[in-house]
Amino acid sequence: MSELRSMSSYEKWSLFISIIGIVVVFYIGWLQYSISKSLQHLQPDLRGTIDKVYDGSLNPTDSGAILEVTIGNLGSPSVVRGYNLVLRLAGSTSTTDYASTLLPKNITSSDGKIIATFDSTTDAIYEKTVQPIGTGAEVVGWIFFKIPNVTGDQLHASGTSMNLDFQDITGKEYQTHTWLFDGTAAKEQYYVPGGGRPFVNF
Fold this sequence. Notes:
- There is one protein chain.
- With 202 residues, the chain is an alpha+beta fold.
- It folds into 2 domains: 1-42; 46-180, Sandwich (Immunoglobulin-like), CATH 2.60.40.
- Helices cover 26% and strands 32% of the residues.
- The chain is built from 4 helices and 10 strands, in the order H-E-E-E-E-E-E-H-H-E-H-E-E-E.
- It has helices at 2-41, 120-123, 125-128, 152-155, and strands at 46-57, 63-73, 81-88, 96-99, 106-108, 114-117, 138-147, 161-167, 173-175, 179-180.
- Strand 5 (106-108) and strand 6 form a beta hairpin.
- The protein starts with a helix and ends in a 22-residue tail after the last strand.
- The mean pLDDT is 84.
């Protein structure tokens, strides 16, 4: 009888220790998850969108593209740098990268008429994001790319696509959604708050 009671006590202690072990395991898992989520909030978490694209020929063999871009931040404050255009021409399986150049002061039409005016210090996205984008904030700006050995017709041919790559302060890389050309000279444009209206005569 005493042996039976001893076995029963042993089983009870075993069950108690097992329950404590399970609770400890679940607590450690929850603690690791909580720490991981907290650390995520300490890292930048950028989002980028290409809002508009104005493209055209610079000369018979080269083209250019001006992009209006929105970059938001869901994580800790961060500057943005390393802007890079990734272009895939219609019918091609490969992509080509292009570094940005200074935003031009004026954009002119083929007949010499000024259709857009920029101030690089206030309009360029790379200048606006020299200062950190705060948590829950976004910045809208413009960026220009020269695209050598690609004509204007090739650039906006149906099936040509582009993305914009960029980095946060830690060097983590991001990419916007894909902008896909549909073969028309320009898509329908709309006003994006914060981007201004540089194309005054467009």
